[in-house]
Amino acid sequence: MRLVSRAVRPAAAALALSLALVLPAAARAGTALTFGIYLWATQGESPTRAQYLSIADGKTEIETDGPAGYKSTTHPTTKPETALIEAAIESRMKALTLHPGPAPAIPYVVIEWNFSQDQTHSEGRGVYALKDVPPSVLALQKKMFGATYEGEGN
Question: What is the span of the domain harbouring residue 76?
Fold first, then answer.
């Protein structure tokens, strides 16, 4: 059984084209990358600390939250920053598995990432023991946030 009839396909294509023409070019172009690193050092509904990075439209936004309070900064994106977040996202994409094993004990880190552009969208989430945070993520933390979570929650 066909889910889309032959008569509907041209109409759907025409609708998609008309929407694409109506959307501003900025909404259709470019790549958006996000990467969140959340530390759970104690039981609770919210993380103990959070580091979040977003790159879109030529701007980098860096957000941190924790015992010292919330902080957000924005600056023009650099090529090295883009390469760093892309490497971290690609390493997490390659590490995806359908059989992740048992959840780690506290303290642990939750990593969430998102990659979006005109042709594709991917996102993912992983949970790691604090001692097992991947090297690409540690490099991103050191460069973009000035610190990792190593030594916290022990």
Answer: 29-145
Q: List residues bridging with 111 in a β-sheet.
A: 37, 126
- Mean pLDDT score across all residues of the chain: 83
As to burial, measured by CB atoms within 10 angstroms (0-12 exposed, 13-18 middle, 19+ buried), residue 149 is buried
Decide if 128 is inside a domain: yes
As a residue count, the chain comes to: 154
Query: What token pair was written down for 92?
Result: 């997490």
SS3 state at 96: coil
DSSP helix/strand/coil, 144:
helix
Q: Is residue 16 part of a domain?
A: no
User: Amino acid letter at 40?
Assistant: W
pTM: 0.76
Per residue in 28-57, pLDDT tens?
458 899 999 999 998 888 899 999 999 999
User: By the 8 A CB rule, do 60 and 77 touch?
Assistant: yes
Number of independent structural domains in the chain? 1
